[in-house]
Amino acid sequence: MERYVYKRGGKQHDLLAAILINLLPTLLLTLVFQLVPILIAGWYSFLKVNLMAGTKQFIGLDNYIKAATDPKFLQSMATTVEYFLLRVPLQVLLGFLLSLLIYQPRRWTGVLRTIILLPVVTSMVVVTSILALMMHPSNGLINSMLIMAGLPAQGFLTDPRQALFSIVLITVWKNVGMTMLFFLAGLMAISPTLYEAAEIDGATALQKHWHVTIPMLKNTFIFVLITTTIRSFQVFGPILMTTNGGPLNSTRVVVMEIYENAFVFNQLGYASTQSVLLALLLIVISLLQSKLSGRKSR
Amino acid sequence: MKKTTLILLLVLCLSLTVLSAAGQAESQGTKPSELKLLVPQSPGVVDGVQAVADAYKRLHPEVTITIRSVPFNRYKEQLQIMWASNDVDDIITTGSPDISNYAYYGALLPIDDLIPVSERSQFINGAIEAVSYKGSIYAYPFREAASALFYNKTYFDLAGIEAAPLDKPWTWSQWEQNVTKVMQAAKQKTGKTVWGITFLANPGRGDFWLTPIIRSNGEKGSATYKAISDDGMTLTGYADTPQALEAYRFYQSLYTKKLAPTAEVPDAFGTGQSATFLGFLSSAHDLKKNFPDLEWGIMPLPYFKTPLTHTGGFTYAISAKTKNAAAAKDFVKFAGSDEGIKAYFDVSGSDLLSRTDFAKRYPQYFEDPYQKIFSYILQTYGEARPTTPAYVLYNSIMGFNLFLDLASGSDVNQTVQTKIKEFETQARSM
């Protein structure tokens, strides 16, 4: 099938109409359920909104000033950044290494691929529940194994020093399979002739990956970094299910703060402001990642 | 032509019949109306309210009733979103502690006329105050709750400890001494390491369950016992008194002394992993159903200076934006009447009631032994939860986050002060 290329001034109105009709449902859904709520959140960020009383009062930049001086919000931002710094390198590195492991078909590749992808197709709720039970400080499997090995039992999700990293482990375990798939797709697109040429030049396996694989996967790395970053800043479900922001606010991430302000404290305007700030931060980080990766490749 | 005349006459007759029927209905005051009810998915509640609606419809066939139910833990969000729109459910079934919060925002209709002053003494202590805001009643108190301490009879027997009688609860220090002996006896004689106390969710959380421990360290009427100012907006001077801080320290010691688990232990009491357990009436029914071989009993909640248990439960309230205020009030009145309660209990099983006079007229609904114990506890030690228009904030900050932080080992004084400040700041910006 030939790829369609639009030519200016062409008279392919039927084809254009067909494309538009096909796109219309998606565009409409995106508009209604994504763009309009984003715009409303932007507008609400300048208001004091009370859903129950049905009142909206314009308060200018008050919500933004409050956010800039709110220690709870700033602390939740810091916790989110910490979570992002722990999760993103770990997930990207593991995903990349796993893709290298199963790239070359071997006898055990199929089994390994299934094992790695199993958490991806399992519900986050199920994954979180199982891992939380395994990490239970007194009845959990991991502590039983540690004790059997003569090591002290750990608090995991109940220890303020370990809780955030325990959440990172849960989310990485759940998502690393998908990251691996992206890298695998990237690896498959690399021409074998490049490796042959490297081999002729006498490159070792490590040099081949350093000089061929990694540069050729540049776009995949950018994509994976950006999507994992966005997901890291949006983490909510596993925390709500396990620690609810505790212990001692050690897992209180920014989305948790937004949720609580909107639906527990009935401060929808302030929650919208926090959402806008989070979105802006994500845009900045994504642009930076994109730029830095581009500069490195040049 | 004849045929056409005949048809016209037929249409005319039919129209006249319909019009006269409508006129009759109008003159009898039975205007057709539609009522919408929003109910949380809590065990027995949806079926119970449906039975009340069915009984009401039998008396008022002109009223159409639609019941919508949403998951219990999403109920409050649903209420907020619903009240933000103009298409609201006329009647809601919600917890009594949240009523003043909703009334503060003007989301509910006052219903003083449904509970005349002469009838208010028929409700348990604090039930009317819990649903009142600025002198007006905003909900019809219906179901109640009370907490008690369940104990493992087998372990208590091993230690030779007798549980506290219903009329003479233990103090918390008596509880600690006795439970420590029970834990040691269980370890020595069965080899099992058991917890001293477990909660419905571990570590413990929720104002209903835990604030009574703190309040009990004050004399009735004292700032510690009150827990919050009369206007429900100030905690300084109430939640940070030396007595309150002492009680908070005791609560934290449950975890530092390893008397209570710092993480969830599913069915800890039912599976014999805990010597005592803080539960309520449904816990008794669940234990009987799921762990028939377990030997257990119930005693009142221990205390420091004044024994108490928090009360509160489901109420019927009417949305301020309802377009059928008269019909909604009529339904709520019926739901709170003997007939309404009977319809509810017949389907959902009997429970604790806000109205005490019903039990005298219908003792057959109070034959369950556990219900009798809890009814006694409710009437003897029942006290409304701290009444505040910011109850949602209060429960979240002081009922959940504070107790969870204490269980994690945070500094008591500093954590209490931080939470008080957080509550008061949020309450001011309501």
What does this structure look like?
The complex is a heterodimer of chains A (298) and B (430). Chain A contains 13 helices and 2 strands, in the order αββαααααααααααα. Chain A is mostly helical and 298 residues long. Chain A has one domain: Orthogonal Bundle (MetI-like fold), CATH 1.10.3720.10. The model of chain B is unreliable at 18-29 (pLDDT under 50). In chain B, a hairpin with a 2-residue loop joins strand 4 (132-133) and strand 5. Chain B has helices at 2-27, 45-59, 75-84, 99-104, 127-130, 153-159, 172-190, 207-215, 223-226, 242-256, 281-290, 325-336, 338-348, 357-361, 369-381, 391-407, 412-428, and strands at 33-41, 63-71, 91-95, 132-133, 136-137, 140-141, 148-152, 195-198, 274-279, 296-299, 309-310, 314-318, 382-383. The chains are: A mainly alpha (298), B alpha/beta (430). The A-B interface holds A 50-54, 72, 136-139, 155, 157-158, 160, 244-249, 260, 263-267 and B 76-77, 79-81, 83-84, 102, 105-107, 261-265, 392-393, 396, 400-401, 404-405, 407-410, 422, 426, 429-430.
CATH uppermost class of chain A: Mainly Alpha
Which descriptor suits the 3D outline of chain A? globular
CATH superfamily of chain A: MetI-like
Corresponding CATH superfamily of the largest domain in chain B = Periplasmic binding protein-like II
Number of distinct beta strands of chain B:
13
Strand content of chain B: 5-15%
